[in-house]
Design a protein that fits this description.
- The chain is α/β, with parallel strands linked by helices.
- The protein has two domains: about 40-185, Alpha-Beta Complex (Spore Coat Polysaccharide Biosynthesis Protein SpsA, Chain A); about 205-274.
- The chain has helices at about 15-25, 40-50, 70-80, 105-110, 115-120, 135-140, 150-165, 185-205, 215-230, 235-245, 255-274; strands at about 5-10, 30-35, 55-60, 65, 85-95, 100-105, 130-135, 165-180.
- The strands form two sheets. Strands 3, 4, 5, 6, 7 and 8 form a six-stranded mixed β-sheet that branches. A two-stranded parallel ribbon has the order 1-2.
- α9 (about 215-230) packs antiparallel against α10 and α10 (about 235-245) runs antiparallel to α11 (about 255-274).
- The protein is globular and about 60 Å long.
- The protein starts with a strand and ends with a helix.
Length: about 270
């Protein structure tokens, strides 16, 4: 059994007419539900869909992404076999619209399942359109935080991973489209969201046992900022981020040292090129 919920965050095209006409002409009954709200942001739209769902399990998909036909079947099977698993995600194909190319997500970054809270602190490798989660667990975790403009999904997956094991299906079951309109391309909003997440984890008092990871997380933040600014050719800001990263470098942070020099190398290559 299934239901499809289309949560419309104040679209200004003909989305409403297209979906409502489809529901009427196909006689879908209560299988397709259309929900409209004035533009409030992606978090409130997703929360609206979650709270109006009658299902025990919820899977997300953005309007420009595509699932493989067996995605839901494989995830549901994995989650029903493990009662402790409240969240699962899959590998994905990253589709670069402007380049006309694609690459497997797991070839680009580390990905894992199980008790992944610490790993997830350093980088969000969970793509929302690949997620299936228990509705009860989403509500228990507090849903998507509407105050975070970019990274709201990372924040929620962290809160869920803190309490439960996470399932990772290694098969690529999502086609994830990347183009100039993707939210994470906005460097300032991305970094603001990243900063809010760090502060929620390390300054809220809720995750005190992980305070030992604060320095490494700050280092990761400034290296991420430097990488983003190099891509945007904002070289003065990239340099400031690299100098800030040095303040959090510690003996034994071999991963940080390698990444720091890697960013420096890209900085000089880009700087000379442009």
């Amino acid at each position: 059994d299934y239901e499809i919920i289309a949560a419309d965050d104040g679209s200004t095209d003909n989305t409403r007419e297209t979906i409502t006409d489809f529901i009427k002409t196909r006689n879908t009954g209560d299988k397709i539900i259309y929900l409209y709200q004035e533009h409030k942001g992606v978090s409130e739209a997703r929360n609206l869909g979650i709270m109006n769902s009658r299902a025990d399990y919820i899977a997300f998909i953005d309007d420009d992404d595509r699932w493989q036909n067996n995605k839901l079947k494989l995830q549901l099977k994995a989650m029903t076999l493990d009662a402790e698993m409240t969240l699962s995600f899959t590998d994905s194909f990253f589709i670069y619209q402007n380049r006309g190319s694609s690459i497997l997500q797991s070839k680009m970054m580390y990905m894992a399942g199980g008790d992944i809270f610490e790993k997830l602190l350093y980088k969000c490798f969970i793509i929302t359109s690949s997620v299936m989660a228990k509705k009860s667990a989403l509500i228990e975790a507090g849903l998507f935080d509407k105050s975070i403009r970019v990274g709201e999904d990372w924040d929620l997956w962290l809160r869920m991973a803190y309490k439960h094991r996470v399932g990772y299906i290694k098969e690529p079951l999502l086609h994830y489209h990347l183009h100039d309109d993707n939210a994470h391309k906005d460097t300032s909003e991305m970094l603001a969201g990243h900063r809010m997440i760090i502060e929620k984890i390390f300054y809220s008092g809720k995750f005190n046992e992980y305070k030992r990871l604060k320095t490494a997380s700050e280092l990761n933040f400034y290296l991420t900022a430097a990488e983003a600014y190099v891509r945007k050719r904002c070289y003065s800001q990239a340099l400031k981020s690299l100098f800030s990263a040095l303040l959090f470098m510690r003996p034994g942070y071999f991963w940080g040292t390698r990444r720091f020099f890697g960013v420096c190398l890209r900085f000089f290559i880009h700087y000379e090129k442009y």
